[in-house]
Amino acid sequence: MIELAICINTYITIVTRYLILSFVLSALISGCAVTPPAKPSPIDSTKPNIQQLLSSADGAMEQNRLTTPADDNAFDRYQQVLNLDPSNKHATDGINRIVERYLAWALDHAERSNLKKARGYVSLAEGIDPDHPNLQPVVNKINDQEDKVVSVFKLDATAVRDHSVDPSLLETIAASIARHRAFITIRAPDDRSGRWLYQELNSRLSFRIEARFERSSSASVSLTL
Q1: Which residue from 30, 126, 155, 223 has the fewest beta carbons nearer than 10 Å?
Q2: Domain identity same for 57 and 139
Q3: pLDDT tens digits, one per residue of 209-218
Q4: What's the whole-model pTM score?
């Protein structure tokens, strides 16, 4: 019986040591376990594309390729950026600059009594942003300028260049200038022919004409109040 008891105690001691050793090893193994690396954040592939589009759009702006030619202009590039990033301020500011530039050109042509071109630029601006705050003031300016136009005398550009305009037509223009005391805009193919036309008109009047000269492929004399 004594021998049996000793055997049992010995067995229990061995089992206990085994369990303790297993626990320690398990703890060590779990402590040394390798934590898998965190997955990297996904790369936003649109960012390089947006920067490229913005650069292309700005370049087109510098060359005044605002809405033409098709598929190679500033407006299309800015629109592509907004399709990728609807809140992109650079693109929205760029589109606003396009509208402002068209309106500036419209005012410039209106001041030179070239009202057809002025309204054409307004139409382009309106097609981009019909609610732009500067649109209506420019339209009003063009309308005011149109009311000031007394008449436009279209001339043959070749006759102006050759100094061979019909004298009776020059008399008619001079009489209209005198009647309205109008300011005139002379459009001619070159400086020499423009000066000749001014001198011919001025020589037919008793006062010195106030005039502005513009080089143009066409020729005309516009009278404004």
Answers
A1: 30
A2: yes
A3: 999 999 999 9
A4: 0.61
